[in-house]
């Protein structure tokens, strides 16, 4: 039995990027807000002190910032005919734990999606014909467009202090930026990061081949920066301990370095950590959210009533919470009816390794979002007619910092241990680089999220079950973009190249990316989407579900910038539209 607490104006589930942004905006509008977070309160000075944070064993190997699989995990399978099994150690992706969420250990790469991506199905049908999209893809429009999204991208980048160089401003095109991006209302808040040797060599070669390289947009700030909330960040020092780590230098933007330091000081906000939400409660008709039920670290259950409920956790937990709370109709792949769990998508990671004899890249110098890229083979920036696939990837060199345990690049055929392996490690450590192509994964009717019928968590709730595999569309695309990447690699004249296109089936054991999206997607049609363009749940007007779970499919970009923009978009809709007519769907 849950103890009922005094009601509040709004309750926010999850205090990562999305939850912290929305909570702050609602508090500034005068609402009393309670934020509920499953993990601990994280603070840079305490948790990511310079004396302890550069610990590869602790953070990269033992995954200290990740959710413990004993707390909660997922089950996985490739097809509906298979029996799903639990993931007992995080491999393919790394869900975060605690305030800041996965934003603490992210790389910092901060792309905006291109304008065409928000109306992808319409765009492809207009360009290639109404019958061009195969039945294996369930692509759909987002229900919003670039003009609506751009101001919120701008707001997120200003909070994060994102470093970069605009390619397209509303006043016209600029040299040095990404020529494929949508027109921006302003340039990046801070200038691009300085580049190390590997991305510089890549950019010079790509330019010689007629491509247009640009600095990867980075929320590792390039100079001292104070954001609109009054929080100051320091410039990146290229320490090389970034992806999988918190930032000791206050250089990598996250909720704990940009939003929560301001939010926690405001009187009408309260954070409750080590509290796991079990259910979104609704009235008898299921037409109004009445609050949440959660369990604290002592095992006590509490009911928090609220006028507005915002669920802003990681993709998996957003969807599981909707399924266990009976919000919407669970997706059925046989009939393709229902929307809760529909259109789960991932990403297609490809790379080409280059082994040189005459280079020294000093690979220990780096950061998660230091680098140069091209977009010539991303999304629909090239003609797909006759290729047999849609989609593409962001091609880039981003030296994250070659730490001593994991960074052991050796050519194929090298023994995995012994003196010859040691010699090959010494010979290749400094002279090896990689060109990555982080590519799209377009949603399919057979890729979805559901509740597992067998496995449960420590609190008795069904685990979330992933049914996922790469489609033929994605595998053809992966082969194509990897071949294009290899052309650039060969032009750089290495001793040897090793091309690694994504092949099937999906294997959940090796790490690929934490860019999991979909399952509670946005759109204009309640028959194919769970939330409207304001992230408001169809039929439950006071419930908003915000995060990458809203993406109808995944383009060839990192998702965090779009998650932040959607959080600002949802907050703006609640403050300036919903509160004028509470209890109603926003027109």
UniProtKB/TrEMBL annotation:
A Pfam family it matches: GMC_oxred_C
Q: Where is this region: Disordered?
A: 164-191
**Signal sequence coordinates:** none
Show the InterPro entries listed in the entry: FAD/NAD-bd_sf, GMC_OxRdtase_N, GMC_OxRtase_C, P2Ox-like
Does the keyword Methyltransferase belong to this entry?
A: no
Keyword flag Flavoprotein: yes
- Give UniProt keywords alphabetically: FAD, Flavoprotein, Oxidoreductase
The UniProt entry, under SUPFAM superfamilies, shows:
FAD-linked reductases, C-terminal domain (SSF54373), FAD/NAD(P)-binding domain (SSF51905)
**Where in the numbering of this chain does the Glucose-methanol-choline oxidoreductase N-terminal domain appear?**
236-332
Q: Which residues form the Glucose-methanol-choline oxidoreductase C-terminal domain?
A: 446-567
Give the cofactors, semicolon-separated.
FAD
Q: Which family does it belong to?
A: Belongs to the GMC oxidoreductase family.
Protein's name in the database: GMC family oxidoreductase
């Amino acid at each position: 039995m849950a103890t009922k607490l005094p009601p509040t104006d709004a309750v926010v589930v999850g205090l990562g990027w999305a939850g912290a942004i929305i909570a702050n905006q609602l508090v500034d509008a005068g609402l009393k807000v309670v934020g509920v977070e499953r993990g601990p309160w994280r603070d840079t000075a305490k948790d990511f002190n310079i004396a302890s944070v550069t610990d590869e064993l602790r953070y990269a190997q033992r995954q200290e910032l990740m959710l413990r699989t004993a707390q909660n995990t997922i089950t996985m399978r490739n097809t509906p005919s298979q029996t799903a099994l639990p993931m007992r150690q995080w491999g393919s992706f790394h869900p975060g734990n605690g305030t800041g969420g996965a934003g603490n250990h992210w790389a910092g790469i901060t792309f905006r999606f291109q304008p065409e991506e928000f109306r992808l199905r319409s765009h492809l049908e207009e360009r290639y014909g109404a019958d061009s999209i195969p039945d294996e893809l369930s692509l759909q429009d987002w229900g919003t467009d670039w003009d609506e999204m751009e101001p919120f991208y701008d707001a997120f980048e200003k909070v994060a202090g994102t470093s970069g160089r605009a390619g397209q401003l509303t006043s016209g095109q600029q040299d040095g930026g990404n020529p494929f991006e949508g027109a921006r209302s302003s340039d990046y808040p801070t200038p691009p990061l300085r580049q190390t040797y590997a991305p510089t060599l890549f950019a010079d070669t790509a330019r010689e081949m007629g491509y247009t390289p640009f600095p990867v947009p980075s929320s590792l700030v390039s100079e001292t920066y104070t954001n609109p909330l009054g929080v100051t960040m320091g410039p990146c020092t290229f320490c090389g301990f970034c992806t999988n780590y918190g930032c000791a230098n206050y250089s990598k933007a996250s909720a704990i370095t940009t939003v929560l330091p301001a939010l926690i000081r405001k009187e009408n906000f309260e954070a409750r950590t080590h509290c796991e939400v079990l259910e979104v409660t609704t009235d008898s008709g299921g037409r109004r959210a009445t609050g949440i039920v959660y369990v604290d670290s002592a095992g006590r259950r509490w009911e928090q009533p609220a006028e507005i409920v915002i669920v802003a956790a990681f993709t998996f937990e957003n969807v599981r919470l909707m399924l266990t709370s009976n919000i919407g109709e669970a997706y059925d792949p046989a009939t393709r009816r229902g929307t809760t769990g529909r259109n789960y998508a991932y990403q297609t990671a490809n790379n080409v390794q280059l082994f040189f004899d005459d280079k020294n890249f000093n690979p220990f110098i780096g950061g998660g979002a230091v680098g140069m890229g091209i977009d010539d083979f991303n999304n629909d920036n090239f003609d797909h007619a006759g290729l047999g696939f849609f989609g593409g990837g962001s091609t880039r060199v981003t030296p994250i910092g070659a730490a001593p345990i994991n960074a052991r690049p050796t050519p194929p055929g090298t023994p995995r241990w012994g003196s010859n392996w040691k010699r090959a490690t010494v010979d290749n450590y400094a002279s090896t680089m990689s060109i990555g192509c982080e590519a799209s994964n377009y949603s399919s009717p057979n890729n979805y999220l559901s509740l597992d019928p067998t496995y449960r968590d420590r609190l008795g709730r069904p685990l979330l079950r992933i049914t996922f595999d790469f489609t033929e569309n994605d595998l053809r695309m992966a082969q194509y973009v990897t071949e294009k990447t290899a052309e650039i690699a060969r032009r750089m004249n290495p001793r040897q190249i090793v091309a690694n296109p994504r092949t099937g089936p999906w294997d959940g054991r090796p790490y690929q990316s934490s860019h999991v999206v979909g399952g509670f997607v946005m759109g204009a049609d309640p028959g194919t989407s769970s939330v409207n363009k304001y992230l408001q749940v169809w039929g439950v007007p006071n419930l908003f579900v915000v995060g990458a779970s809203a993406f109808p499919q995944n383009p060839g970009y990192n998702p965090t910038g779009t998650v932040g923009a959607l959080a600002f978009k949802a907050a703006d809709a609640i403050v300036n539209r919903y509160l004028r007519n509470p209890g109603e769907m926003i027109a």
